[in-house]
């Protein structure tokens, strides 16, 4: 759930920010408010009295801190806000939230949500607890090491916050229909496939707002996504550069950063000098190994007048550690929880739509409106243009799909319709099909029988739904 983002790009976007879309955003919000209102009405109609569900564990004044925001108007409330007791009941009894991730951000977020009155929280996390998590993932104790994060976090919150129901969920076992009809807000995961389009027009009642948060060291971001309406993660994929792998030429001949020196030792010197014997792999957890890499990196750095190579940095580069800072997690989780509260209650105007936080040096934060991409592969229905020569090989198309900055696919499966039949041109994920379709990669598009204007459907793990492309032959 860690997101890298490029501050320079973000700044550029900020400069481009226009006010014209403000009105539009309010309109979108009003649609969501309407959806919520309908749901409360439905609930009231179908309400089965089962002995005052939800009130059992409430004591006098328990939700006063929340009522202050919901039962009186104020200078920051939404223009259409009408104080009432309904919103609180909605939080307590109806609003269902899915939280993806019970790690550093997840622990904070679950606590924040539970104490804000949300009681129907589903949590998903496939990870187990590691001893190194305990310094910041405060729902876990030494006895929990090795147990599933989601399970321990759910138990902890349920024990601590009376009446709260944190459920475990394996996202892949989710019944899409129940989820779809009952879920109110989703945190930290794209779930665009749940949108319903009718003749290419989005059905606003199918929108499940998504709040996304990420941290990296002292930097973090939070964003509000109304899928299909405001910029989704794919719309702004260019803000997240691919994982940094330093170019070999830089490492080998022109190091400029301390990291380059460590990479030089790790990638080139270790296999050459075999300091701990033939075939001994570099172990990031072995202090003797790290010490050797550190010393050699210092030598390398001195050669190029680079300073700042430290033991910690060496270990960080070797183990590819992304530092986690508890306070950053707390700030970002709080921002996410606040946005959930604002959207669920419709009492306040939510973030529009991207917040950046940075306290590396002082404290800096700003928000900007990330704009939707007209031809976004995830949230629009428009086929994207692919420009290739008829003599281009299918391999080139595959390379384009994986290397293009706005696509960044992992193992795209390409299918098309030829003579009225579905044909798989290439598919990697099933070994037998991969073998059968591999020869296609070295064929030209023309040889494969593809024509100008041909539609290609591409499925990939990085997008929840199949992406359509239109092949345009260039001559
Ligand atoms: Zn999009």
Explain this structure.
With 475 residues, the protein is an alpha/beta fold. It folds into three domains: 66-217 and 324-351, NAD(P)-binding Rossmann-like Domain (Rossmann fold, 3-Layer(aba) Sandwich), CATH 3.40.50; 248-319, Ubiquitin activating enzymes (Uba3). Chain: B, domain 2 (Arc Repressor Mutant, subunit A); 384-473, Ubiquitin-like 2 activating enzyme e1b. Chain:  B, domain 3 (Structural Genomics Hypothetical 15.5 Kd Protein In mrcA-pckA Intergenic Region, Chain A). The chain has 14 helices and 15 strands. Helix 9 crosses helix 11. The chain is globular, with a radius of gyration of 26 Å. Mean pLDDT is 81; it is low at 1-22, 47-55, 172-181 and 189-198. The structure holds zinc ion. Zinc ion binds at residues 232, 234-235, 373, 376, 378-379.
Explain briefly what this protein structure is.
Helices cover 35% and strands 16% of the residues. By secondary structure, it is of the alpha/beta class.
């Amino acid at each position: 759930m860690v997101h890298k983002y490029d501050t320079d790009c973000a700044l550029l976007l900020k400069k481009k920010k226009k006010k014209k879309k403000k009105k539009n955003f309010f309109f979108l919000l009003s649609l969501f408010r309407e959806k919520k209102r309908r749901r409360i009405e439905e609930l009231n109609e179908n309400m089965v009295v089962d002995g005052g569900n939800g009130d059992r564990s409430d004591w006098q004044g328990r939700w006063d801190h929340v009522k202050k925001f919901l039962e009186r108007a104020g200078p920051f409330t939404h223009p259409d806000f009408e104080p009432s007791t309904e919103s609180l009941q909605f939080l307590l009894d109806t609003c269902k939230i899915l939280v993806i991730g019970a790690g550093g951000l997840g622990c904070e977020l679950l606590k924040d949500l539970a104490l804000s009155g949300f009681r129907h929280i589903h949590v998903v996390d496939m990870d187990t607890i590691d001893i190194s998590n305990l310094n910041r993932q405060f729902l876990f104790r030494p006895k929990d090491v090795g147990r599933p994060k989601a399970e321990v976090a759910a138990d902890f919150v349920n024990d601590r916050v009376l009446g709260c129901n944190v459920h475990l969920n394996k996202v892949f076992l989710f019944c899409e229909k129940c989820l779809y009809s009952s879920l109110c807000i989703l945190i930290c995961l794209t779930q665009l496939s749940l949108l319903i389009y009718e003749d290419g027009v989005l059905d606003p009642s199918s929108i499940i707002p998504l709040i996304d948060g990420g941290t990296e060291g002292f930097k973090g971001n939070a964003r509000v996504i109304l899928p299909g309406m405001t910029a989704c993660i794919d719309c702004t994929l260019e803000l997240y550069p691919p994982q940094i792998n330093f170019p070999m030429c830089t490492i080998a001949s022109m190091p400029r950063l301390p990291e380059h020196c460590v990479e030089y030792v790790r990638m080139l010197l270790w296999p050459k000098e075999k300091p701990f014997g033939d075939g001994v792999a570099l172990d990031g957890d072995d202090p003797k190994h790290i010490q050797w890499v550190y010393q050699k990196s210092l030598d390398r750095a001195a050669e190029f007048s680079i300073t700042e190579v430290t033991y910690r940095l060496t270990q960080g580069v070797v183990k590819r550690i992304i530092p986690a800072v508890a306070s950053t997690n707390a700030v970002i989780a709080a921002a996410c929880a606040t946005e959930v509260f604002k959207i669920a209650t419709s009492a306040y105007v939510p973030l529009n739509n991207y917040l950046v936080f940075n306290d590396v040096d002082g404290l800096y934060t700003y928000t900007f409106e990330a704009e939707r991409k007209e031809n976004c592969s995830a949230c629009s229905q428009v086929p994207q243009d692919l420009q290739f020569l008829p003599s281009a090989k299918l391999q080139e198309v595959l390379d384009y799909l994986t290397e293009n900055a706005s696509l960044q696919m992992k193992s795209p499966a390409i299918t098309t319709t030829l003579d009225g039949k579905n044909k798989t041109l290439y598919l990697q994920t099933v070994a037998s099909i991969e073998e059968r379709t591999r020869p296609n990669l070295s064929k030209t598009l023309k040889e494969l029988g593809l024509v100008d204007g041909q539609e290609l459907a591409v499925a990939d793990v990085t997008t929840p739904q199949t992406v359509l492309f239109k092949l345009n032959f260039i001559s």
